[in-house]
Amino acid sequence: MNYSDLTRRDWMKRLSLGAGFGVGLGFWNENEAEADLRIRNDAPPGQLAQNLETPPCRLEDGKIIRPQSPIPKISETDVLVIGGGAAGTAAAICAARAGAKVTLVERYGYFGGLITGGLVLKILSHRATGNQLVGRGITEEMLQRLEKMPNGLDSDYRKTEPNVDAEVYKYLLVEMISEAGIDVYLHSWALDAIMDGNTCRGAIFQTKMGPQAILAKQTIDTTGDGDIFASAGCEHEIRTYWIGLVHRIGHVDRAAPPAGTKKPRGLGDGTPIPGVQWVNMSGPDGNGLDVVTLSKLEMSHRKQIWKQVQEIRNTPGYEKTFLVETAPQIGVRVTRVLRAVHNMTLADAENGRKFEDCIGIGGAWFGEHAAWEIPYKALIPKTIDNLLTAGRSTAAEPKMSELVRVIVPCWVTGQAAGCAATLAVKNGTAVRNVDYPELRKLLLEQKVFLG
Ligand SMILES: Cc1cc2nc3c(=O)[nH]c(=O)nc-3n(C[C@H](O)[C@H](O)[C@H](O)COP(=O)(O)OP(=O)(O)OC[C@H]3O[C@@H](n4cnc5c(N)ncnc54)[C@H](O)[C@@H]3O)c2cc1C
Question: Which candidate in 10, 135, 249, 451 could, as Cys together with 408 as Cys, close a disulfide (CB 3.0–4.6 Å)?
Answer without folding.
Answer: 135
